[in-house]
Write a sequence for this structure.
């Protein structure tokens, strides 16, 4: 067990984060002075892990904020490969967050909010866990819904799933090749309302980011 | 935390380094002369040099102080213009009258009566240069004499106390305790008689107390915690924990635990307590407190110990790279994350299985026995001390 790897150790720029960048991801917002001191202590002692749910929420907000800052300044290439559409999560961070889903959504939030969701080409991302051996954890789908009442229907491995606009959904599919058949009432995925696509699965499976304004 | 439970490691932080042979630098102020030579042994009270401070000038409104018309001030002067006056001497005197008591104006420092403006009744004093003796302050051996810069390097023995961060250049003074390990220090609580002292603050120091410390000419403040916004304001707006950072706002501050309200750790507090009212150095920029060994017997070890010649940087700065050591029963540790941050104790147990924390993380837990209770804590949230 390493004593020197923590959630924030891969990040150099924590000191320059502003409190509003963090509070953007927090509801309710804790007292600002506590938040400032929490961040400063995380810089001092990056190896520490959150004990309470509140501390975890703040850590995840800091993670989203630092990733967003890096992505918007073009410094997130170690986590976001735009050319090959990969989100790369360092494997050592798995032990710092209770589950892979929480970590994955923090990366998605932080890295993809800068991208133009309306472009069909940004609708599909491979989630890769980097380490000694890179491991594909699954695929993120970002459908384009027109309004909050919209619905997407998916068929994966013989099962039917319904995803509402605004939802974040994870559908298990732990195989190399997941055939996804989809249909959207109002909106599109990969530029069309209805189609099928073969995607890489993994420990996470198929993730759908149905948020409209993300 | 995932992974097999074989060996557990934590960072090792050297908070207190007792009786280390180090080099310290002593400087004389302004123009002056160094009185010691390389190789010479010195004791704390020994004068190693004499410096002279620049004079400057001072204006005193005598008309106001004597309650007389400006044109009448010259009648009450006790010395002529151009004459020298000494600290404590009477400059002007208005005798007792039927309507008022005697009024005396004293000189606060050695000076020359320079000019009297009888339009406003103001006297200008040219302050005389002051000679200041610089004592060695430590037992030691002179290693370097730099006559040009007015500096002397002394090899000495001292206990080093390493804080987490700080601000301010090397200063000195006697250690003055305030209110226990966890007290809150605001501007109204700066203890009287703190001038030129190093004040041990407690669990939190407020910005207004730092401002008061500067105006009261306090040399330094040691605190367990500080709010990061206040630390940024004294640290030049940035949080740098790397080498080479310097800032100074007129007082040196060393933070021993972290940010927020955090009691000074027992290890540091009781080490400082054992040096209460004795002379110490504080260098906030290095997060360092130097407690000289005031036993003459230390000279034997000082003389025998050779320091590397290249290590002329006096003492090492705050290290951000800590060594990892295996966690073992019996070690002392400090907690570095809430809850219970800054508490210290002895490791008396290491669980064999993982526990689910309220955050949802799983971790093997360490049992830490403090002076008042037993605390279960993740090994990631401790440092071995």
């Amino acid at each position: 067990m390493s004593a020197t790897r923590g959630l924030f150790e891969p990040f150099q720029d924590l000191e320059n984060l502003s409190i509003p960048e963090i509070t953007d991801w927090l509801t309710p917002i804790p007292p600002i002075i506590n938040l400032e001191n929490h961040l400063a202590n995380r810089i001092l002692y990056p190896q520490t892990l959150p004990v309470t749910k509140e501390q975890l929420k703040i850590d995840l907000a800091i993670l989203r904020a630092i990733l967003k800052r890096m992505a918007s300044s073009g410094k997130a290439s170690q986590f976001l490969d735009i050319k090959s559409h990969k989100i790369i999560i360092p494997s050592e961070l798995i032990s710092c967050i209770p589950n892979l889903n929480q970590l994955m959504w923090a990366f998605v939030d932080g890295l993809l909010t800068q991208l133009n969701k309306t472009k069909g080409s940004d609708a599909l991302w491979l989630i890769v866990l980097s380490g000694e051996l890179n491991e594909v954890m699954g695929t993120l789908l970002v459908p384009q819904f027109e309004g909050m009442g919209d619905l997407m229907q998916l068929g994966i491995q013989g099962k039917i799933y319904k995803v509402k606009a605004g939802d974040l959904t994870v559908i298990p599919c732990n195989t190399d090749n997941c055939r996804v058949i989809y249909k959207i009432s109002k909106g599109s995925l990969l530029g069309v309302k209805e189609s099928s696509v073969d995607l890489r699965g993994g420990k996470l499976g198929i993730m759908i980011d149905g948020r409209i304004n993300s | 935390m995932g992974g097999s439970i074989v060996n557990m490691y934590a960072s090792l932080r050297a908070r207190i380094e007792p009786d280390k042979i180090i080099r310290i630098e002593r400087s004389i102020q302004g123009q002056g002369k160094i009185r010691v030579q390389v190789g010479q042994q010195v004791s704390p009270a020994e004068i190693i040099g004499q410096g002279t401070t620049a004079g400057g000038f001072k204006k005193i409104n005598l008309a106001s102080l004597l309650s007389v018309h400006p044109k009448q001030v010259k009648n009450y002067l006790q010395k002529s213009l151009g004459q020298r006056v000494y600290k404590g001497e009477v400059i002007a005197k208005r005798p007792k009258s039927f309507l008022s008591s005697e009024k005396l104006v004293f000189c606060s420092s050695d000076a020359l009566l320079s000019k009297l403006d009888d339009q406003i009744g103001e006297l200008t004093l040219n302050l005389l240069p002051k000679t200041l003796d610089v004592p060695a302050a430590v037992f030691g051996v002179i290693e370097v004499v730099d006559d040009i810069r007015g500096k002397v390097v002394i090899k000495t023995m001292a206990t080093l106390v390493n804080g987490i961060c700080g601000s301010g250049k090397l200063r000195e003074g006697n250690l003055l305790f305030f209110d226990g390990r966890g007290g809150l220090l605001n501007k109204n609580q700066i203890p009287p008689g703190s001038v030129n002292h190093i004040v041990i603050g407690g669990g939190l120091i407020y910005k207004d107390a730092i401002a008061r410390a500067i105006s009261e000419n306090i040399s330094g403040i040691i605190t367990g915690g500080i709010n990061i916004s206040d630390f940024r304001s004294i640290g030049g707006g940035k949080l740098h924990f790397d080498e080479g950072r310097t800032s100074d706002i007129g007082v040196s501050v060393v933070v021993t635990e972290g940010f927020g309200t955090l009691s000074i750790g027992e290890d540091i507090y009781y080490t400082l307590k054992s040096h209460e009212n004795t002379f110490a150095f504080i260098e906030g920029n290095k997060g360092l407190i130097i407690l000289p060994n005031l036993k003459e017997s230390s000279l034997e070890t000082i003389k025998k110990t050779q320091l590397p010649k290249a290590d002329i940087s006096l003492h090492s700065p705050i290290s951000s790279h800590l060594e990892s050591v295996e966690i073992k029963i019996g070690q002392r540790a400090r907690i570095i994350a809430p809850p219970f941050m800054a508490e210290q104790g002895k490791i008396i147990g290491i669980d064999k299985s993982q526990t689910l924390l309220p955050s949802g993380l799983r971790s093997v837990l360490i049992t830490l026995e403090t002076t008042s209770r037993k605390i279960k804590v993740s090994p990631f949230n401790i440092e071995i001390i």
